[in-house]
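Duplicate of earlier report; DNA oxidative demethylase AlkB input re-posted below.
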Amino acid sequence: MSGPTAELFADDALQQPAGREQIGEQSYVLRGYALPWIERLLPELRRVLAQSPFRQMVTPGGFIMSAALSSCGELGWTTDRTGYRYTTIDPNSQQPWPALPEALHQLAVMAAEEAGFNDFEPDACLINRYVPGAKMSLHQDKNERHYTAPVVSVSLGLPAVFLFGGHERSDKVQKVSLFHGDVVVWGGVDRLRFHGVLPIKEGVHPQMGPQRINLTFRMAG
Ligand SMILES: O=C(O)CCC(=O)C(=O)O
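Output:
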């Protein structure tokens, strides 16, 4: 997360339209919503990652995920050969996942409200790290106990193309460009829509370096 030289900046990371874009009946992109939080958020994130560093996990099918993962909050999402699940313990450290920092909690609650979801109380924050080339295949978020709460997703660093599909894997997919500080919220009738991320393009973000970090907040337990 250090600041590399200006000539390496990713051009499109600097072009960031403002405002709120509706991408589904109950889904919004809040452009630049996290930007005012970044200075508070990054030191908290560093502390979390010092306690539970990124690691590449294996899917039940035996594939190594290209995004590296960590978590904070009461519950952390994990995958291994036996399946996908939430755990209270970080399987690497055998310690509880780091607590959800207050700045992250507040950001997630306020973004959810901005998108029309009051009373969001996230107990899980999954942290995905994408280096150029890393991606997230189309999937539904179905490991949570209930689907009443939205998913709040914060983008940091290199730009990404977010894929937002329908309720069937084969449904048409919208391609939504996401930039540093953008927040996507989807819930209600859209909660189980397929989504994913295209491979991240080469680049170096001025604040975050050659990576994209995504935080997804959920009510999992
Ligand atoms: O990285 C993103 O923007 C989306 C992450 C995601 O799909 C997930 O964690 O379920």
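The chain has two helices and 13 strands.

Merging into the original ticket.
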